[in-house]
Amino acid sequence: MQTLWQDLRYGARMLLKKPGFTLIAILTLALGIGANTAIFTIVSAVLLRPLPYPESERLVEIGRVFGGSDAAGALNGPKFVFLRDHAQSFEAIAGNTGGSDLYLSDGGEAEYVGQLRVTADFFRTLGVAPAVGRGFTAEEDSPSGERVVILGGELWRQRFGADGEIIGRKIALSGVAYTVVGVMPPGFEYNGPPDVILPMRVNPAGGEEGYNWTVIGRLKRGVTPDQARSETLALFDKFNALYPGQRSEGGREDHRLMLWRSSKTADVQKLLWILLGAVGFVSLIACANVANLQLTRAAGRRKEVAVRMALGAGGWRVIRQLLTEGVTLALVGGGAGLLLAVWGLEAMMALVPKGMIPRAEEVNIDWRVLLFALGASLLTGVISGLAPALQTLRVDVIRNLKEGAGKAGAEVARGSLRGALVVVEVALALTLTVGAGLLLRTFVNLRGVEKGFDARNTLTFYISPRGKGYDTVAKLNDLYRRALERFRSLPGVEAAALTNQLPLDGRFNMPYMLAGQSKPSASAEYRLISDDYLNVMRMSLRRGRQFNEGDVFGAEPVVIINEAFARRNFANVEPLGQEVYVCCDDRGDLALRRVVGVANDTKQRNLSGPSPATVFIPIRQATEGIKEQARYASFALRAKGDLLALSAAVRSEMRQLDAAVPVQGLRTMEQLVGTSVAPQRFNMSLLGLFAALGLVLAAVGIYGVMVYGVSQRTHEIGLRMALGAQASDVMKMVVGRGMALAMIGVVVGLGASYALTRLMKTLLFGVSATDPLTFTLIALSLGLIALLACWIPARRAAKVDPMIALRCE
Question: Domain-by-domain residue ranges, the chain?
Answer without folding.
Answer: 2-44+270-447+678-807, 66-253, 465-660
